[in-house]
Structure formats: structure tokens, C-alpha cells
Design brief:
The complex is a heterodimer of chains A (about 375) and B (about 110). Chain A has about 375 residues and is an alpha+beta fold. Chain A folds into 2 domains: about 180 residues, no CATH class; about 160 residues, no CATH class. Chain A contains 15 helices and 7 strands. Chain A has a 5-stranded antiparallel β-sheet. In chain A, strands 5-6 form a two-stranded antiparallel ribbon. In chain A, helix 8 packs parallel to helix 10. Chain B is an alpha/beta fold and about 110 residues long. Chain B has a single domain, classed as 3-Layer(bba) Sandwich (Glucose Oxidase, domain 1), CATH 3.50.30.10. Chain B contains 3 helices and 8 strands, in the order E-E-E-E-H-E-H-E-H-E-E. Chain B has an 8-stranded mixed β-sheet with strand order 1-8-7-3-4-5-6-2. Chain B is globular, with a radius of gyration of 12 Å. Classes of the chains: A alpha+beta (about 375), B alpha/beta (about 110).
Chain lengths: ~375, ~110
């Protein structure tokens, strides 16, 4: 019925392997905490009459009519991994009010936007997330001031705690989809056996979704890290895996309180002061999470996804918040258990069949999944 | 020291400290800097406890679990998948966590 699409097929291959690898981990089915399966949250983003995906489809159409190219629209999403989080919604596309043709069209467009924002390998099949050219990386190294471990013995521990705190802050705000708040890219290989990992954290002071972030004095933070003797892998959903403890392999770092072009922090004391600020904000964040019941948590999950569309709706002169109908739907309708049950059933299947089933679930061209 | 628990070494290194078992979010406030965090599996509700930990030991999990990722990020030892750490270890108990071997030692 639908023409073959190589990009969509590659994506399905990547998502099936990635999900299968993490689904065996404890907590996955009840992440971000023992409250809800992420599929339940995705249901509210796709199934209501005027759902997030129906509106996203329309907004993209309007932006195209205004003359914006794929690249222009991609840039509005800010970072590729943020768009990648939206591909989780494909599981509910067939239950949305989009026509079968529109579902495939939207899915392919989102994948194209990801491709626009990367230099190579849009789905990180080589476990590298490459956003910069070698020339751009070399330029970053030569024009920024780095702090080196040889000069500051406590630097590895400090940078490790800083990154752990920032990652946990992204999880507190964006749950399972922490990459709504960060883009880790690299590893970029240098000639001398060293590697570069760049971490851009952004929309940290997201006071529109969370009150507790208002005490944060910065909205973005960037680190450019030099490592030796460690294997770093980054997948399509911006999840990073390292072969060993990162602080032990750190050679040097450049920390910027802002985006990649911001001025560099001068000393470990400056980093420590940022870490202390983050620790205070994380305490408040933890209290915020604790105060939410299951429904409140799902409402936040839905809101942070709508927040992704903010730059697109701003461009169109409309607000980004979920329409009242979505909140009303959330109060009234419980999500069916079919996807959660499907994943449960899958654990008994041979691996090849598991992969095939996940591909069907996330394939917008498939109208009915045969488990 | 003798081996009390075996699991998967998910982040290398050795660390000694006193056990803090955290089974629910309310327990987080009792975690002190340098304690050994012992829990079923880590979540963002344990954020402040994780950042105070000298090492992490969990009942569940593998090399790619949340606790393992955060521990490798922080450079602290981590043993996951012990199945019974929260049952066998007691608050205040002195232990040594070996993240290379994936074991937890207690004094003989």
C-alpha cells in the first residue's frame, strides 16, 4: 500500500534493537518511577481528537506554506535528539485522527528533520552522534580555554558530579525522555588517541513547566570534554554508555555557562559554584516530583512534550500549551493496556520475533499489529 | 573482610562506608555524604541520595541500568543485580563495595 521508505525502515531497525536492549532493564516498564508506563503518557499525546500529533502535523503544514524548508523547521526543534523523543509517539499513530497517509507523511518528515541536524549517520547506527565537522571540532579546541586534570587533581570528580547532577535534573523535568533537555554529541576522534565529547544542556530553567527551576541562574550549560582510554557510545535517543568510569579517563574540560559559544568558566571553583546551585534546585525538584500523584505525573509528561513545539507555535503566533480538551481527555479516559501487554507478551518470544513485533508497533504504515 | 553479596560490577573502583538502605523517597533525607546507597533500583526520586553516595548497590539491574550509568558518570563504584542487597544489608553497617569484582564485603 505504501512505497518502501529506506529511512523509515532503518529507523524501525534502530528503534527495535534499542528498545529491546533497554526493555530488559528493571524500572523500564515503570519509569520514571513506579507510576506509569511511558506508553500511557504517549496515548494522551496521540489519541485525543485534537491531539499533539494532529496539531503538529497541521503546524508543520502551515510552516511549509510560509516557505520554511525542512532545515528551517528542523532548527526550530533545536536539537535532533529532541525530535527523536517524538518518534516514541509512532506507537499510537494508528489510533490518532490522522489519515494513514498523513501518519506516514508526519513520521517521515520527523526523521528527515533529524537528518538535517546531523553531519552523518542520522540514527547513530555506529553509536556516534555527529553534529559537527572535524573542522568545527578543531576550531572549538583551539579557541577555547580548557582546564586540565594534570593541573587540578579534583577536576574529574567535580566534572563527574556536575554531569550527573545535570542529567538527573533533565530526568526530573523530562522523565524518561531526558534528552528533551540535552544533546550529547561525539565521540569526535582526535589524531592523538584522545576523544572529544560535547554535552549541551538546554531549557534547564523551564519555568513554564516546572516552578522549582526558577531559582536556577542559567538556562543552558555546555561542556567540551577530552578523554583518553575510554569507549563512549551514544544511541539514537541520546543515551550514552561508557566502557568505564568517565572521571578516570578525563584529560581536560571546558565548561560554559551558556551555549557552545558562551565564555568559558575559568576555574574549578566556578564549576563548584554551579554544582552547588544545581544541588539546591534538585532538592526542590525532588520535592515537586514527590508531590505528584500518577495523574499529575502524566499531566506533566504530556506538558513537557507540548513544550517541544513552543518554537514552532511561536513562529505561527499561537501558544504552545495543550488545549483544554487534552486535559479533559486525561481526566476522563484511561489508556488501554494493549501496548504494555504487548511488551509483556514479547518477553516470552524469541528475539527475532520480538524485533519484528516492535517494528510493527512503531511502523506508521501498519494498521493492525499482529503479535 | 568476607563476601556478603555478589552481583554485577557496573562501575569500577572500591569504596568503604556505611550502608543507607533507601526503599522509599522519604528515606532520602537520612542519607549522609559518603554513605553507601543501597536500593532496589535508582529513580529521579532518589536524586539527592545518589549525589551524596560514595558507592551504589542495587537489587536489580545490569550494565546499562540507571544506577550503572550515573555511577560511571560520577566515577563511584557500583554493584547491580545483587537480588537481595536491600534485605541483607542493614542501615549503618560498614561495608566495602568492589565495583570491579561486583561484590560487597563485610568485616569478618
Amino acid at each position: 500500500m505504501y512505497p518502501n521508505n529506506k529511512m523509515l525502515d532503518t529507523f524501525l531497525d534502530v528503534i527495535s534493537h534499542t528498545l529491546l536492549d533497554v526493555s530488559e532493564e528493571p524500572g523500564w516498564r515503570v519509569w520514571p518511577m513506579p507510576f506509569f508506563h511511558p506508553s500511557e503518557g504517549n496515548f494522551y499525546l496521540a489519541v485525543p481528537e485534537r491531539s499533539f500529533i494532529v496539531e503538529l502535523y497541521e503546524h508543520i503544514k502551515c510552516l511549509e506554506e510560509e516557505g520554511l524548508s525542512d532545515k528551517d523547521i528542523a532548527k526550530l526543534f533545536k536539537k535532533p535528539s529532541r525530535i527523536a523523543t517524538l518518534t516514541f509517539l509512532f506507537e499510537w499513530f494508528r489510533h490518532s485522527k490522522l489519515s494513514p497517509e498523513q501518519r506516514v507523511e508526519l513520521a517521515i518528515k520527523l526523521l528527515r528533520y533529524i537528518k538535517c541536524l546531523k553531519k552523518e549517520d542520522p540514527f547513530c547506527t555506529t553509536k556516534r552522534n555527529i553534529l559537527l565537522s572535524n573542522e568545527e571540532v578543531n576550531n572549538l579546541i583551539s579557541t577555547n580555554r580548557f582546564l586540565f586534570v594534570r593541573d587540578h587533581v579534583n577536576l574529574p570528580q567535580l566534572v563527574g558530579r556536575l554531569n550527573a547532577a545535570l542529567f538527573l535534573l533533565c530526568e526530573t523535568m523530562y522523565f524518561l525522555h531526558h534528552s528533551i533537555g540535552h544533546e550529547f554529541h561525539g565521540p569526535y576522534y582526535l589524531n592523538n588517541g584522545k576523544i572529544i565529547l560535547i554535552r549541551e544542556y538546554y531549557d534547564l530553567k523551564n519555568t513554564e513547566c516546572w516552578d522549582f527551576t526558577k531559582k536556577l541562574s542559567f538556562n543552558e550549560l555546555t561542556t567540551i570534554e577530552i578523554y583518553k582510554g575510554v569507549d563512549i557510545r551514544i544511541d539514537f535517543f541520546n543515551r550514552m554508555r561508557s566502557s568505564q568510569s568517565l572521571p578516570h579517563a578525563l584529560v581536560g574540560v571546558c565548561v560554559k555557562q551558556g551555549n557552545i559559544n558562551a565564555p568559558t568558566l575559568n576555574s574549578p571553583e566556578d564549576i563548584k559554584s554551579i554544582l552547588n546551585e544545581l544541588l539546591e534546585v534538585l532538592k526542590l525538584g525532588q520535592e515537586s516530583l514527590k508531590s505528584l500523584d500518577k495523574k499529575g505525573m502524566i499531566r506533566k509528561y504530556v506538558e513537557v512534550h507540548y513544550f517541544i513545539r513552543k518554537p514552532l507555535t511561536e513562529k505561527l503566533g499561537i501558544d504552545w500549551y495543550p488545549p483544554g480538551e487534552v486535559y479533559e481527555f486525561l481526566e476522563r479516559v484511561a489508556p488501554p493496556k494493549e501496548i504494555a501487554e504487548m511488551f509483556k507478551k514479547m518477553s516470552q518470544m524469541p528475539r527475532e520475533r520480538q524485533l519484528g513485533t516492535i517494528k510493527q508497533v512503531f511502523d506508521p504504515r501498519v494498521n493492525k499489529v499482529q503479535a | 573482610m568476607k563476601i556478603l553479596l555478589k552481583g554485577t560490577g557496573a562501575s569500577p573502583g572500591r569504596a568503604e562506608g556505611r550502608v543507607k538502605v533507601i526503599l522509599q523517597a522519604e528515606d532520602v533525607q537520612n542519607m549522609r555524604e559518603g554513605d553507601i546507597l543501597v536500593t532496589c533500583y535508582t529513580t529521579p526520586l532518589l536524586t539527592t541520595a545518589i549525589l551524596k553516595a560514595r558507592a551504589i548497590v542495587t537489587d536489580e539491574g545490569g550494565l546499562m541500568c540507571h544506577a550503572a550509568i550515573i555511577a560511571r558518570e560520577m566515577g563511584i563504584p557500583c554493584v547491580v543485580g545483587t537480588h537481595k542487597a536491600t534485605k541483607l544489608l542493614k542501615n549503618g553497617q560498614k561495608v566495602m563495595v568492589d565495583g570491579d569484582e561486583g561484590v560487597v564485603y563485610v568485616p569478618e
